[in-house]
Amino acid sequence: MKTNILQFLRTNGEQLDAEIAKALHISKAQVLNHISELSAAGDVICCQTTRFFGGKKIEGVSCRLSAYVPPKATGPKPGAKRGAATAHAHTEMNIA
Asked: CA–CA separation, 68 vs 46, rounded Å?
């Protein structure tokens, strides 16, 4: 079951314990037991959290994979101009 929880977190990112329990069709108590073991092993990071949805207060344990680094975005960075460095280099050569 621990591998199912890890796979679910890899696929869906940070989730509340209740969301994990609902998705994997197990009790919230079982999820809490498994994530405490995963946390002790250093596989996940968990913290108590309070969220508000539509004015309704929801308390639970938020879990995410430890040391997860999202993949680097490909392509040019936002706001970067193509050929700006080469155009600047050409104007400096003409001045000298």
From this structure: 13
> Comparing C-alpha atoms, which of 40, 51, 83 is closest to residue 32?
40
Q: Which amino acid is at 61?
A: V
Question: In angstroms, rounded to a whole number, what is the distance separating the alpha carbons of residues 61 and 65?
Answer: 13
Q: Please write down the HEC assignment for all residues of the chain.
A: CHHHHHHHHHHHCCEEHHHHHHHHCCCHHHHHHHHHHHHHHCCEEEEEEEEEECCEEEEEEEEEECCCCCCCCCCCCCCCCCCHHHHHHHHHHHHC
Separation CA 88–CA 80 (nearest Å): 14
Q: Are 35 and 47 in contact (CB under 8 A)?
A: no
pTM: 0.64
pLDDT on residue 2: 84
